[in-house]
Amino acid sequence: MADPPIFESPVVRSYETAGSGDLMLTDISATTKWLVRASGSVGAVAARLGAPFGSSSAAAGGALVLGSRPGEWIVLGTADAVAEAVEGLEAVDGADFVSALDWTHGRALFRITGRSAPRMLEKVCSLDWSDPMTPDGAVASASVAKVTCDIARNDAGGTPSYLVFCDRSLGQYLFDALIDAGDEFGLVVGPAGG
Predict the structure, then answer these.
(1) Using CA atoms, how far apart are residues 155 and 124, in angstroms rounded to an integer?
(2) Alpha helices of 32-73 — where are they, by DSSP H?
(3) Domain 23-29+105-189: CATH superfamily, name plus number
(4) Which residues of 55-77 are buried (b: 16+ CB within 10 A; e: fewer)?
(5) Residue 85: in which H helix or E strand, if any?
């Protein structure tokens, strides 16, 4: 088996980075990401993945499973954790049709963390970011700075934190648009990670 290609971030510009801040944007595009589709949003595959449409859950191996659309999930985390979560889905009893696609190199992924993150997102997205509408664990699809995105709230230590996914080709534009939206709230760019 050939070695996987070396990951190159869709964010190609250099930014001054900080290790911490009250509002932080981080490029975590190198995180392993898989798209799973099944013939239905209920059934054996849905039960195994455990994240109904619009919500998220942690898989047994530690991967994060996002119910992004009916019958569709995004699985992300370390390569081993994601492999464990998607392995054998096609053999699950009662599964009609299942496909799993490695999205790691095709999707940009950014994390926005901080108490001002909801207000920052309100500037570039029309969703209601209040706790009752998008609590920790919520998953949605929306336009962010006119880019179609999947967004998941994934709080870090009680602090609001959002994962924002988009097509790789729009990653640099969206990253810059998020920096611009967060500037008034003191946004800092965190070191890239995955």
Answers:
(1) 20
(2) 44-49
(3) Probable tRNA modification gtpase trme; domain 1 (3.30.1360.120)
(4) ebeebeeebbbbbbeebbbbbbb
(5) helix 79-86
Compute the C-alpha angle 42/44/47, nearest 5°.
70
With beta carbons less than 8 A apart as the criterion, state whether 168 and 107 touch. Answer: yes
Q: Where are the domains of the chain?
A: 23-29+105-189, 32-102
Look up the CATH number of domain 32-102: 3.30.70
pLDDT tens digit at each of 194 positions of the chain: 567 678 889 999 988 888 788 999 999 999 999 999 988 777 788 888 989 999 999 998 999 999 999 999 999 999 999 999 999 887 776 656 788 999 999 999 999 999 999 999 999 999 999 999 999 999 999 999 999 999 999 999 999 999 999 999 999 999 999 999 999 999 999 988 75
